[in-house]
Specification:
By secondary structure, the chain is mainly alpha-helical. The chain contains seven helices and two strands.
C-alpha cells in the first residue's frame, strides 16, 4: 500500500508506503507492544491471553503487520485461521481490538488518516480471526 507524500497528482508524487510513513519496524513494534498492553488490561479481551503474550507471538504480529503495511517483512508463522480457531472471538471482540489499535496509533502520533488506513488493513484479517 502506498500513500502520496505531497499534494500533487499521484503520478507525480513520491510514493511512500505506510510502513515507511509511520516509522518502519520500530513504529510497528511500538504499536504492537502498546496494543498488547491494552488487550491484557482490557476486562473483556484479556481472557484470550490467560498466560500473557509470548515474545514469539508478538514477533509474529509485528511481522504480519509490517508486511501488510508494505515493509520488507514476510510472515512465515502459523496459519491465522487455524491459530484462532476455537478461541470464540466474536465480531464485537474484533471491533473492540480495532478501537484499541486506533488509540495506540493515536498515542504514538500516527496521523489520523494513516491510523484509519492501518485499521482498515487489519480489518481484512477479520475472516481469519473471528471464530464465533
Amino acid at each position: 500500500m502506498t500513500i502520496c507524500s505531497d499534494t500533487v497528482a499521484p503520478a507525480e508524487a513520491t510514493a511512500v508506503n505506510v510502513y515507511q510513513a509511520i516509522g518502519g519496524r520500530a513504529a510497528v513494534s511500538a504499536a504492537v507492544e502498546g496494543l498488547y498492553g491494552r488487550l491484557l488490561a482490557d476486562p473483556v479481551l484479556s481472557r484470550f491471553f490467560p498466560g500473557g503474550v509470548a515474545a514469539k507471538h508478538r514477533a509474529y504480529v509485528v511481522t504480519i503487520l509490517g508486511e501488510a503495511l508494505g515493509g520488507p517483512e514476510r510472515y512465515r508463522g502459523p496459519d491465522l485461521a487455524k491459530a484462532h480457531r476455537g478461541l470464540g472471538i466474536t465480531d464485537a471482540d474484533f471491533d473492540r481490538t480495532a478501537v484499541h489499535l486506533a488509540e495506540v496509533l493515536d498515542s504514538l502520533g500516527v496521523p489520523g488518516h494513516l491510523a484509519d488506513h492501518i485499521v482498515g488493513i487489519v480489518a481484512g484479517l477479520r475472516p481469519a480471526v473471528v471464530t464465533a
